[in-house]
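Input.
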Amino acid sequence: MQLQLLSPTFFFVGLMLSINFTAIAIAYGTRYRALDSAGSEGHFKELRVVPNVGGVAVISAFVLPALAGLLYISLRNPPHLDVTKQYGLDFFHNRIEENFAPTLAILGGAIWLLLVGMWDDRKPLGPAIKLLLQFIPAIGIVWVFDIRLLTLLDQYGPQGKALSVFIGVIWIVTMINAINFLDNMDGLAAGVSLIASLLFAIAAFMVQQWFIAAMFSLLAGSLAGFLLFNFVPKTGAKIFLGDGGSQPLGFLLAVLAIRTTFVNPQEIEYELGTNWWGIFAPLIILAIPLYDMIATSLIRLRLGHSPWVGDQRHLSHRLVERGFSKCGAVLIIWALAATIGIGGILIGKLTPLPATLVVLQTIAALLLLGFMEGIFRR
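Output.
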């Protein structure tokens, strides 16, 4: 099998499974009254009679084929993949042995957060407990399985490695909550996550990280199938992600981004670049959910409210207050996520001045968005 075909194949598999799983989740969610809930005490939201078990469909459509594919290539001897012809069986089996346990851990972390989120959707957890339960898979992935950001800090000894572990854990927990914050309007979190997944898949594909590209493609396909039921402008969503979907989704985006090598100084022709500032690529690709979380939290704090108690002050709500329709607000945010995110793929290959311009462009776009939606006047 040609490794280049893994990404489109896995996208299609995720899409088909997600369409079927989402239809089943709608039927059973409606039947057993697993509907949108008010959330924790003080949380304010517009309740609708819609099942909020979409996370089961999306995460199942991702985890099941990922697990099946991992087991297949691990057990088949010799595997019929062109990597074995190019590098030999020893290389292949070493790579599988190195990545088998970490990949299982990633899938396990997604399942853990799916269950935590589903529990929170049915019986709301307090912010402190919820945060603690998010730290468990983040610490496990970074510390136990050594999936870390900025491993170049290891050259500074134990302190450098400790800083790398700390940054990695904070990155994962931040993205879990950023996507959770963004899940506040039909199609918003799933659509932005789909765009980010496709951009990450393109980046991984460019540098021949075939399995990471396939994982991101599988996630994108799972989200695309779900969006057919979650973003329905005329009638409204037939199903929501719920915390059971948004939390593992943020976790997967964060962890798979860590697994992607955006900078490789040792390889002159590396497609994503050799410049250290390429490490900012994930921040640029995921700029919109990060912006929404930070801006919304600052507004709540300025008003004397807890940043963890939900309300109608998210980016999408603020755009609606400015006169956009809900559908229009979602489409604007999708467009911004794609436009800004493309810079993340390019930045590592640029020389200092163009790279600085990409960063300034990202900041300027977010500042312009802030002025447009009135955040600085609140």
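The longest helix spans residues 89-122.
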